[in-house]
Structures are given as C-alpha cells and as structure tokens.
Design brief:
This protein has 352 residues and is α/β, with parallel strands linked by helices. Helices cover 36% and strands 23% of the residues. The chain is globular. It binds S-adenosyl-L-homocysteine (SAH).
Length: 352
C-alpha cells in the first residue's frame, strides 16, 4: 500500500489529522516515510545542505565549539551532540578541524540523535573511528557539559498550524474529498499558548507552533544551564514566524505538500523566538549564516585552502564561499542561534 492510500484509510476511519501528524507520517513512517527509506542529501537526492557544500562550514563550526570549550576552562569530559546529523559530514568535519585543539577530542563523548535508520548507517561508517552513541530522545543526555550542534534539523520537526478566528484559533487539518487529500479547518477554540500571537495577527492569519522543538530545547537548555557548554543551531526561519511555511521539496524543486506523501521532504521555517522561550539558558542574537561564517573567518579559510595545488578545489572554493555566505544564496535565509550558560561567554561569532 502507498503512504497516500494508508493516510486516506486512516482519515476515513478516524477523521482529519493535524499537520504535525501528517508530517510525522510522511517523514518517519517506518516503511513508507521519507527519511526511513532513503538518503535525501546531495546532488542525486532532493536537497543539499551547508556541510555537504563545503568542508569549511563544519571546520568553522567545530573551531567555534572548541573555542567555547576553552573559554569555559576545558572541562575534562563533555558531550558533543548533534541532532539530525544527515551523512555525518558536519560531525566528521568538526572532529577533523578540532584535532589541532589539544585535549578536545579526548574529552568529547559523541552523541547523535537520528530518526532515520538509513542515515544512521551512513553516520556509523562516516564516524566509526569516533565511536558515537545514538540516542532516540534527549532525556538520557549524560550529566556533563553539553556542546550541541544542529544544522537543518529543527525545520524537519512536525508543526501544527492555526488560523485566527476572532480571539479563537482554528487548527488547519488534513482530510480528504473524493479520495484526494485536502486542507481544512477545525472548530474555533481558545488557546492560551497563542495568547501572545493575538498582538501581531488579525483575523484569518496563520501561525505555527512546533511542540517537538520546544520540548527538545527545554532539555538541551537545561543541560547547558546546569552543566555548562554551548549550542550552535543553524536553520532557515526567523524570529517569530508568520504565515504558512510548510513546504515540500522533491528533486531540488518545490512540490505540493499533499501530493506524493512520503516521496518529498517536508519542512517548515523555524520560529527561533519559540526555541529561545523554551530553552532555560541564555541565547545569543539571531545572526544570519553569512555574517556568522564571515566572523569566524571563512574568507581567510577560502583563501588558505585555495592555495592548495588541486585545480578543482581552487575553482570550487569561491563558489562554495558564495553559496554559504551571500545574501542571495544561503547567507541571509539561514540563521544562526547560540545557546550558553547565563552569565557565561556566548559562543564565538555570536552576540549576546
Ligand atoms: N544536518 C544534516 C542533515 C539535515 S536533514 C546536514 O546538514 O546535512 C535533517 C536530518 O534530521 C536528517 O538526518 C533526518 O533524518 C533527521 N531527522 C528528521 N526528523 C528527525 C527526528 N524527529 N528525530 C531525529 N532526527 C530527525
């Protein structure tokens, strides 16, 4: 049975589902879900991410984390955790770049949070010399300082959508008409968690929440606040998102989110304000990815690597630099948020 037919059967039996339930089924259904069945990254896949564009991305993030570790007195044991590590490229680049930082690699315990068995296998191979541990929820994070990184992870978490109706909200749901999936709206209900959105919306406006992101942020934030460490989160989105940002991408092009469920990547913009409100630790200003990478020295790194003899590298590096930093490419759409302990120093490249 296709995932589309399975969803139609479920709707016929139990009624319309929330956008979050729909995203969860499409992305993580054990046999038919998007992430469960493929490696979506790279030219042959559906999308390409910053660490897959250039090693410079992971190297600079790694050195920023190592600097944060040194600023905190080089704790002897810490957790180096990544959520949604994809092919393991970012973590591999972090660990290679930080080899030059004495003691960092020895003190790090690598922990990965990954829902896809296919990608977990690729990570196992990419990172085998570092002996990572996989955890499925953030509960069992070790009692140690936490250095956390996530690139394009929070955008994959399921969102719920609400349309304003007076002082009430109607949830956007997915039902079916004549065997075709369709959006609809639930009954108007009051929602205290959306009270703060009454001030910046009007009737008919749509807002999104991501309960899974809030719960993860509260666990990560609690660990950083009590044990020290730092977080670097990179994703597309903004401070307080507004409007429908659910999007489907297949073969590097936009698609209809309700067509071909399980075959396209579904994401939503990250609402960084909501992430910060959920994290009980300090956070930096939201900083465009281009600005963050420039502050960490990506231009100097591009020049240094370009001096290598390899012709292809010399040609590719300025292109990668442009894609990662230019405002018309990823430089502005993608934002960076730092997490740190209250009264401690923020991670390098980010302002308190
Ligand atoms: N960070 C990588 C991959 C980004 S794609 C990179 O930048 O290249 C999103 C990643 O998050 C994938 O590894 C995907 O399998 C993982 N993922 C998506 N939803 C998840 C969930 N609910 N729990 C854990 N991992 C998830």
């Amino acid at each position: 049975m296709s995932l589309g037919n399975s969803l139609l059967a479920r709707i016929a039996q139990s009624g319309p589902m929330t956008v979050a339930d729909y995203m969860t089924e499409c992305l993580l259904h054990p046999q038919l879900g998007y992430y469960a069945t493929r490696d979506p990254l790279g030219a042959a896949g559906d999308f390409i991410t910053a660490p897959e564009i250039s090693q410079m991305f992971g190297e600079l993030v790694g050195l920023a984390l190592a600097q944060a570790w040194m600023d905190q007195g080089r704790p002897a044991q810490f957790t180096l955790a990544e959520a949604g590590p994809g092919r393991g490229t970012l973590m591999a680049d972090i660990l290679r770049a930080t080899r030059s930082v004495p003691g960092f690699g020895q003190a790090a315990r690598i922990v990965l949070i990954e829902a896809s068995p296919v990608l977990q296998e690729i990570q196992r191979v990419a990172l085998r010399e570092h002996k990572p541990a996989w955890i499925s929820t953030f509960d069992p994070l070790p009692e140690a300082p936490l250095y956390f990184v996530a690139n394009e992870f929070f955008d994959a978490l399921p969102i719920r959508q609400f349309v304003r109706d007076g002082r009430f909200w109607r949830e956007r749901c997915i039902g079916a008409a004549e065997e075709v999936l369709q959006f609809g709206l639930g009954a108007p209900v009051p929602r205290t968690d959306l009270d703060h959105r009454l001030e910046d919306t009007k009737d008919g406006d749509l807002v999104e929440i991501c309960p899974a992101a809030s719960s993860i942020m509260s666990q990560i934030g609690r660990r950083i606040e009590s044990h020290g460490g730092a977080g670097i989160l990179i994703d597309y989105g903004d401070w307080r998102s507004q409007g429908d940002t659910l999007q489907a991408v297949q073969n590097h092009s936009f698609a209809d989110p309700l067509e071909n469920p399980g075959q396209a990547d579904l994401t939503a913009h990250v609402d960084f304000e909501a992430l910060c409100l959920a994290a009980p630790c300090a956070h930096t200003r939201l900083t465009p990815q281009g600005v963050f990478l420039e502050r960490l020295g990506i231009t100097a790194r591009t020049e240094a690597l370009s001096k290598a003899d390899d012709q292809t590298a010399r040609k590719d590096l300025p292109i990668a630099h442009h894609r990662l930093t230019h405002p018309s490419e990823m430089g502005n759409l993608f934002k960076t948020l730092g997490l740190y302990q209250t009264n401690g120093p923020p991670p390098p490249g980010l302002d308190p």
